[in-house]
């Protein structure tokens, strides 16, 4: 039997009590203010345009607090609507600026300057009201006499009657001045429904309002609507996002008692329920019962996705607002924690579904984005990993600029930011002088620059080689002897002394498949394999042309005992069939960077003349292509399904230098984990939802 979980009969405030409301007669909006103040309500609504912040020339009257009260706006004794009364508390902020000459020399004030300081203050206060699906803005003109003008002191309040709202709706209220001298005040409030108020005899829509409760039964969530057999009503589920209007997710017009079943994976904190009778001008009752549900919050984080938007922007996609912060960080290749970068992106609350620009001059594969709550890190993505290659062993230098052109440089390490030219025992401190010279000579890549400082990425390869040069010289003789002994013992050790080369060829079907190929190349590079792929050689590809680039890479790979990997996709299969049918017509139909199309003229003779085995390997991705789709001509070489046949695929790529089976299985698991995010992104159909929608079932 379902366990009662949450009922829609909520009352205003913390305690679920039944409230009795004051009645306001007539449709006219009104405004009144505290004793001593004068106020006027402008006729009609105004545009809701807060505008940008401006500096106050002196003391100004500004809103400091919002307070609400529910009332009934009645046209007849039994014809009333729920209405929100808003009280805006006001105070004087700011001071008159004293002229410098008066402060220094005690010169008497000009009477013309003294006069405005003793005058009354006037302010235009805007009240903005939003309750799905309506929004209003009204303008209140308030004047304070000179006797009450005391900077920093409260002067009273102005009360507006009133904003009409639907029973059970969530309302949002903002208040600011025009022009705007400070950040706007805001208030969000959940209104009660018919059962939380003494309004059944006053609001006609409550006479036949559908009864609704929400209950949990295992993994399912049930919406039970108890209504008469012949009653027709509307039911809508929507994501109540902030900012922006609510977005309907599911809508049905139903008749009679109903039970709506939701899967627990459909729950998110901003999922709200709205129900109303299918009658003219009926009141809609809305409620958002999943705000505090732990499963809804877990589902929200699972649905959140970080996206790269070229050239240097990113966006966090999620169905609801996230209580999280975003910052940039620097990920070193040693696998340690990502080091936060306060400049150039300070920690701030995330705005979901909005493109955000990176204030960077250049991109770098080690720069990542962290999205975290105050408790723990939830998401991290190194967004340029597919396009810029694997992580680099670069040293990040943080330049801080102070007054009078004072500058200091420190190197970001796992222990913190180490000042250059210090006596610390870290790598950055030992190389402080050379790193400083690299910055001055332009050998470091500048990632960010402004008045506060700069970020520099300095390559460390030459210092690593220099550091170990003497060690290599001392061990050279011993290494040569050991190498000769091992060479006599096992012939395949020579191949193990140097990682094998692999040339990846693929058809660029779409951006998702290119990201998948980039992820595979990066994972193979870590095995290690010396990977060549056109994604990492765009400049050479443009300069030489696809055909010349492929000839050079293929010749070098095969001369070094490497292997050419053909990644089959729907586009690659179609292209192969075109070549097999008519190579001349297919040659010019593809882009200038399509190395796969250019390579077919050289690949096909090897397969036709039986020279392919031992030099070529085929592969395709599960769910993207069936085994039978690979052309028969190319099945003369091993063709592997990824990631299901990763161990065999990796063993074939590494050849004689392949490790033992248990080690090979570990490497296959590492590659599979690296491919999974790109596979999920590639196979996710555009425009689909996150889960199955609700299904309605008739209850008899």
UniProtKB/TrEMBL annotation:
GO terms for biological process: inflammatory response. It is a single-pass membrane protein; Single-pass type I membrane protein. One of its GO terms (cellular component) is plasma membrane. InterPro entries: IL-17_rcpt-like (IPR039465), IL-17_rcpt_C/E_N (IPR027841), SEFIR_dom (IPR013568). The lineage of its organism: Eukaryota, Metazoa, Chordata, Craniata, Vertebrata. It comes from the Eukaryota. The chain crosses the membrane at residues 468-488. This is Interleukin-17 receptor C isoform X3. Keywords: Cell membrane, Glycoprotein, Inflammatory response, Membrane, Receptor, Signal, Transmembrane, Transmembrane helix. One of its GO terms (molecular function) is interleukin-17 receptor activity. Residues 1-20 form the signal peptide. It is found in: Cell membrane; Membrane. Residues 499-651 form the SEFIR domain. It comes from Balaenoptera acutorostrata (Common minke whale). The gene is IL17RC.
